[in-house]
Write a structure and sequence with these properties.
It is built from 18 helices and 16 strands. The strands form three sheets. The chain has an eight-stranded mixed β-sheet, sandwiched between helices. The protein folds into two domains: 246 residues, BirA Bifunctional Protein, domain 2, CATH 3.30.930.10; 91 residues, Rossmann fold (3-Layer(aba) Sandwich), CATH 3.40.50.800. By secondary structure, it is an alpha+beta fold. The longest helix has 26 residues. The structure holds adenosine monophosphate (AMP). The site of adenosine monophosphate (AMP) has 16 residues, from strand 6, strand 10, strand 11 and helix 14. The site of adenosine monophosphate has 16 residues, from strand 6, strand 10, strand 11 and helix 14.
Amino acid sequence: MPVKKTTKKATTTKVTKKGSAAKKAVDNKKAKAYESLRGMKDILPKHEGYWLDVFHKSESVARAYGYQYMQAPILEQAQLFVRSIGKGTDVVNKEMYIFEDRDGKKVALRPELTAGIARAYISNGMHNLPQPVKVWYQGPMFRHDRPQAGRYRQFHQFGCEVLGDRDPVIDAELIAVSYNTIKDLGIDAVVHINSIGSLEDRQNYLVELVGYFRSKRSYLSDESKKRVSKNPLRILDSKDGQDLEVIQDAPQIIDWLSQDSKAYFMKVLEYLDELQVPYVLVPTLVRGLDYYTDTVFELFVDSEDALSAQSALGGGGRYDGLVEQLGGRLTPAAGFSLGIERIILAMKDQKQKLGDVPAEKKPHIFFAQLGEQGRRRALSLIEQLRKSGVFVGSHLSKNSLKGQLELANKQHATHTIILGQKEVQDGTVIIRDMDSGIQEIIDQKKLEKKLKKLLEIV
Ligand code: AMP
């Protein structure tokens, strides 16, 4: 009996709780609206023009230079990035999204794609392909950085990698691909370039550099003080005013390069001259990641503006030891990546400077339908047109002609096809010129040909 009593009590409490939850739900009928995570931005249709321009132009430049599309997963073993990018780097220490998956495996969202591509090159036996392997990619990267203009936690990169050969002409070609992509998007860029030599060159230089920073330790920023023993090269990248004076007089890596490294670097510069890519030698440029050797470079908007000068549009370099370090054969390689959000910011900036140049009016067709029969015929006609390469805008859920013509105007349609019950029965459509309002009736069989003419599809 007592058991029964307890159960009854418990049930009563539950009902009361449920009741109050239901009441609460009624009180706050409106569900909580979610925000995107900090530093993660939505890409909206109104920005489609910029994104597609970057996607298409970058792909077209990469393909023109003989690069093939490649992709590696967004999620990889965390250790892949720790080993390649380096333990002492900000990317690994502070910014990586790292977590245990449901199997207890330590995984990370890729902060960049070079390590993933190098891993995939090994996993897929790509050393058996004719060398070098030239690939390009686009996609999202993740870094838990402090968000600000041009710095996000999810951002997108376009990049190219050449694996399996070492020649200065490869470095120069990669720089030309990155530079020309930006140029084709209407941005004047300049390349900052340096050589950090071979690993041996760097070891000798590091002894000298650490000695110098130790002697100036008290003048360095707190952040840089911590880096003296952990990652002294990174201090050279510091933008802190306090550090800049110390960096100015620091020993320069270029003076520690072997004859071979120097000769290699000179060749890269000669090829860049040939390619007419403008560059500036920046002796303090070292790039943040551990895997670079020899050529390192970054691209900036060519501008007097201090802010543009601080945030790179992209960067890259040679990484001859990475594939071997990840368990593959000795495979010299080089690559770059460009930040798509930063490029779009520069494109917007450029557009503003040039004033609002009226966009060239491209022909655009809208398909308006009326009544159930019109809608059904529109469905099959639009599909038929799509198969023949004619794309039209439509909002098939709308019924009123007025509403559809308004939408056509908003989409800057040059012509609207109108299909109602009468046209379905006659096997015709009306084509309305949206500027003049003049309407023409044509046979549905002639529609494809007519639209191809209007859309200038030859
Ligand atoms: P990195 O290899 O770190 O130099 O990155 C290459 C390029 O990616 C940079 O020059 C930026 O254009 C872009 N990038 C890197 N981190 C971010 C970020 N947190 N937000 C937006 N773009 C970024």
